Structure formats: structure tokens, C-alpha cells
């Protein structure tokens, strides 16, 4: 999830663990704990694109990381807060839950997380987008209300608990909504007589009303959208895989690693003799049926007999257009 959401979750968890003893400092250190796992993004400044992408939501998003570093950070805080009545074990417990709840929440997103690192298993339930205002804003509001109360106040406890309950309930509701939307896609494929080998569904950005699905039909992918307010049948747009354009690159180790990152959901496009690897899991940059650009796309070039991978830059203008289009499409076709 986005940084704000993880800060709110971490602060709320910190309050639940130690708020009664140390007040708002529990929220502060909980927020820090909720931020730490995402520092793995700094790897992009030290390693190549593919390696940095592999590391993202890996070790730092695991149970192992939480167990290993909770006492380290807990001990550091204990030294900083020498005058506090909280013990080393108190701070360690706060950091453990702050570090652990971060990847647990991330496991519900499209990217997922390697919660059980070092085992090669990525959990990705794909029932909530990385930014969802309906999850974050009510949670934030109750956290602020709790923050303004005395640490021993019953209202403080209830406000924080309410925020946790509402956000968790919404997360569980999104699982139910995913199940319903997924079945709608399957029904549409059956009605239209489309044969397929795999289907992958997820919410579109910022909401859980409009859903999208990638469908593998063998030589091509179909992409369709479904809103709970739709009155017409789902339409699917065809996107050729074009894997043959890779030629010998299909056997390249770097390309295989990139394919593994995309979990096999990728299409190749060729623009002015340059190949682009497109990760389908995060969708297109617009809802235009003629759109061919994907949110996550990588330029492939050969330099000194080695495959170079460069992530294409994202445009703020595209994001604004997509948001406007999503808002309109969300209310039905």
C-alpha cells in the first residue's frame, strides 16, 4: 500500500500495543515501523532495474525480517526513550507488530509480498489497489481523533479500535467483492464462448467498484472491465502476446527473471525497432480500447552483448486522464 496508509496502520498498531503506557509516542514509533519495510525501494539506486524489482517487497516484507529486526529497533528506541516507563520488551513488541502488519496488508494488493521469505512464495490476493481512499481516510480520521485524547482515556481506545475495525472490515469486504466480480468475468467468458487457460482479476485504481481482468487465451490476452453498476455485458479487448518478437532473448536469464516477476503475464510490443516488455498485472495507462501502453513497461536493449532493462517513465498527465476515465466508467457502461 502507499506510504500514508502504512504510516496510519503502523501508528494505529503502535497505539494498540503501547498507547496506554507512552501515549502518542506509540503512534510515532508505530508509524516509523510501518515505513521501514518500504525502504527497500532505495535498492534502485545501487542495483539494476530487474534486481531492484525482485528485491521489492521481499526480505524486508517478511516474518523473518520482523523477528530479526524488532529487537534491534526496539533496543534503539529503548536507549532513546530512557526516561520512559516502557521496557525493552515493550518497544520490541511494538516494532514487531508494526513491521509485520505492513507486509500482511501488502499481501492483499496486486504486487503482493514475500511474507514467508526466504521461501519462494509471493502472496497476492489482489483485492485492493495500493491506494484506496475508502480504506485510508476513515482510518486516518479515527487515528487523529484518538491522538487528541488523553492516553488513559476510554475514548482514545475506542477511536483507535474503531479505525482498525472499519479498515479491516473494508479489506474483508473487498475480498467478497473480488469473488463476485471474478465470477462475473468467468460467466461472461462462458456466455461469449471464449476458451481460456488462465484468468487474473483485480480492482482498478482507487476503488473496489470497477474491476478488471486479464485472460490468457493462448496466443493473446483479453482485457475486460466490470463495474457493479454495469447494465451491459462485459467487452474484452485483444492484446497479442508477441513473445515471438523476443527471438533468442526468450532464453536470456534476465528476461526469464523479468517474466517471473510478472508471473508470466506479459506482452511484447515493438516501437521503432525497440522492444518493450509490458507487465499486464497493473493494467493500461488509459481505458481507451485502442490503448497499447501499459503502466509498467520496460525497454529492452542489447549493450555489450548483455540485455539492458530500463523501466519507462510514467506521465502525470496520463495518470490524471486515467483517473477521470475511471471515475466515469465506475458508474456503469
From TrEMBL:
Record carries keyword Nucleotide-binding: no
Cross-referenced InterPro entries: Transcription_regulator (IPR053170), YdjM-like (IPR007404)
Segments crossing the lipid bilayer: 59-77, 97-117, 123-147, 159-177
UniProtKB keywords: Membrane, Transmembrane, Transmembrane helix
PANTHER family from the UniProt entry: HYPOTHETICAL MEMBRANE SPANNING PROTEIN, MEMBRANE-BOUND METAL-DEPENDENT HYDROLASE
Descriptive protein name: Metal-dependent hydrolase
Amino acid at each position: 500500500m502507499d506510504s500514508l496508509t502504512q504510516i496510519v496502520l503502523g501508528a494505529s498498531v503502535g497505539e494498540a500495543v503501547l498507547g496506554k503506557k507512552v501515549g502518542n509516542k506509540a503512534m510515532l514509533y508505530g508509524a516509523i515501523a510501518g515505513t521501514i519495510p518500504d525502504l527497500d525501494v532505495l535498492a534502485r539506486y545501487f542495483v539494476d532495474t530487474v534486481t531492484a524489482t525482485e528485491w521489492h517487497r521481499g526480505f524486508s516484507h517478511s516474518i523473518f525480517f520482523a523477528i530479526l529486526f524488532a529487537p534491534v529497533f526496539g533496543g534503539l528506541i529503548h536507549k532513546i526513550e530512557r526516561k520512559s516507563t516502557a521496557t525493552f520488551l515493550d518497544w520490541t513488541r511494538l516494532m514487531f507488530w508494526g513491521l509485520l502488519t505492513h507486509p500482511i496488508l501488502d499481501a492483499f494488493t496486486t504486487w503482493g509480498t514475500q511474507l514467508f521469505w526466504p521461501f519462494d512464495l509471493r502472496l497476492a490476493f489482489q483485492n485492493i489497489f495500493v491506494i484506496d481512499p475508502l480504506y485510508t481516510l476513515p482510518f486516518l480520521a479515527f487515528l487523529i481523533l484518538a491522538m487528541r485524547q488523553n492516553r488513559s482515556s476510554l475514548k482514545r481506545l475506542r477511536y483507535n479500535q474503531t479505525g482498525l475495525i472499519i479498515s479491516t472490515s473494508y479489506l474483508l469486504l473487498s475480498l467478497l467483492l473480488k469473488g463476485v466480480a471474478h465470477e462475473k468475468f468467468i460467466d461472461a467468458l462462458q456466455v461469449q464462448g471464449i476458451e481460456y487457460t488462465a484468468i487474473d482479476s483485480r480492482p482498478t485504481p482507487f476503488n473496489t467498484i470497477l474491476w478488471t481482468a486479464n485472460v490468457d487465451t493462448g496466443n493473446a490476452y483479453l482485457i475486460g472491465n466490470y463495474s457493479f453498476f454495469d447494465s451491459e455485458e462485459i467487452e474484452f479487448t485483444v492484446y497479442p502476446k508477441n513473445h515471438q518478437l523476443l527471438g533468442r532473448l526468450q532464453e536470456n536469464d534476465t528476461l526469464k527473471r523479468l517474466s517471473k516477476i510478472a508471473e508470466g503475464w506479459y506482452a511484447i510490443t515493438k516501437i521503432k525497432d525497440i522492444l518493450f516488455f509490458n507487465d499486464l498485472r497493473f493494467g493500461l495507462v488509459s481505458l481507451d480500447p485502442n490503448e497499447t501502453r501499459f503502466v509498467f513497461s520496460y525497454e529492452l536493449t542489447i549493450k555489450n552483448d548483455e540485455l539492458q532493462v530500463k523501466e519507462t517513465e510514467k506521465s502525470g498527465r496520463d495518470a490524471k486522464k486515467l483517473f477521470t476515465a475511471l471515475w466515469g466508467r465506475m458508474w456503469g457502461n
